[in-house]
Specification:
It is a single chain. It contains 1 helix and 10 strands, in the order E-H-E-E-E-E-E-E-E-E-E. The protein has a 6-stranded antiparallel sheet. Strand 9 and strand 10 form a beta hairpin.
């Protein structure tokens, strides 16, 4: 049985977040795990990976490359629910639930842990 889509509680987000640059990447350092989600975002799935490199790279829907270092998190608009990312030079893949069009990624401050919050955002 498929799990339901759960609405996410949202920290105040201005209308500017819906612009290309903000949707492409919202990037923060030092907060415990969550970028601000758009008010029309629904969590479709949370999944986990590992990366031992200092740098993790992901490309957004506009083919712009973003680096997420340890203890950083980012909000990235996707072109497909299956997306590639790089742990250093190693290309990896993650597949989110159907209808995912954005991912909130967080790297732990130490160790190898990566958390992917797969989101469905309406009216992008």
């Amino acid at each position: 049985m498929k799990s339901p889509i759960i609405p996410f509680a949202v920290i105040a987000v201005g209308a500017a977040l819906l612009g290309r640059a903000a949707i492409a990447q919202s990037h923060h350092r030092g907060n415990p795990g969550f970028p601000q989600f758009p008010p029309n975002a629904f969590l479709t799935e949370t999944t986990f990976d590992k990366c031992s490199s200092n740098s993790l790279y992901i490309y957004n829907i506009y083919n712009e490359r973003f680096e997420i270092r340890r203890d950083e998190h980012a909000l990235v608009r996707l072109g497909n629910r299956r997306f590639s990312w790089y742990c250093g030079d190693s290309r990896e893949w993650t597949t989110c639930a159907e209808n995912t069009n954005m991912v909130a990624v967080w790297r732990a401050p130490s160790g190898r842990d990566i958390t992917w919050h797969c989101l469905q955002v309406h009216n992008l």
